[in-house]
Amino acid sequence: xxxxxxxxxxxxxxxxxxxxxxxxxxxxxxxxxxxxxxxxxxxxxxxxxxxxxxxxxxxxxxxxxxxxxxxxxxxxxxxxxxxxxxxxxxxxxxxxxxxxxxxxxxxxxxxxxxxxxxxxxxxxxxxxxxxxxxxxxxxxxxxxxxxxxxxxxxxxxxxxxxxxxxxxxxxxxxxxxxxxxxxxxxxxxxxxxxxxxxxxxxxxxxxxxxxxxxxxxxxxxxxxxxxxx
Length: 229
What we know:
This protein folds into two domains: 34-126, CATH 2.40.50.140; 131-224, CATH 2.40.50.430. It contains four helices and 15 strands. It has helices at 3-29, 38-43, 140-145, 147-150, and strands spanning 34-36, 50-57, 63-65, 68-74, 88-93, 105-112, 118-126, 131-132, 138-139, 154-162, 176-180, 183-188, 202-209, 215-217, 222-224. The strands form two sheets. It has a five-stranded mixed β-barrel with strand order 2-4-5-7-6. The model is unreliable at 21-29 (pLDDT under 50).
């Protein structure tokens, strides 16, 4: 190999090395999210840093500012940190999934702000599946036929989901419509709903009938373990 060829080889090799360094620098500029506990974020100084935090959505903490949802998370029940009182406020500018709700574990990835809140750009929920037998429950028609005596009484109702399952912050004020035997009711629920629940899913819902004809669930709506449509 002559001297000119060697110089060209060295130059090409140098260009490749520089290009690789630039690629690595660009890839790392976004920074991988550090997985932290709520206590870590609340007590530490992570302002401006990208983190991932998970916790249970605190009841009645969901509010909105325009298209931005604000809510609080706390350590998951049963975790070592669950005895603590720390909560973390999360801002999320995006559509909340139908699985989001009170008690649901939300995995939030984003940047810690100066006030120790987390502005999340990604939100994933873990809503455990729930199956239950419809035995002993009323159909929607059976419940409504007894509306006068059943209003406010704890009961179980079964039926099929009709239409879309709505997120917890839906303007309609209810999450889904349940129908059976030709009758339908709108079900109110502030917790998560299994992602498998869609139009036509058979459900068993515990709760109480309201005076306005809606039904407020007191527990996560359960997929009927024996019925499919």
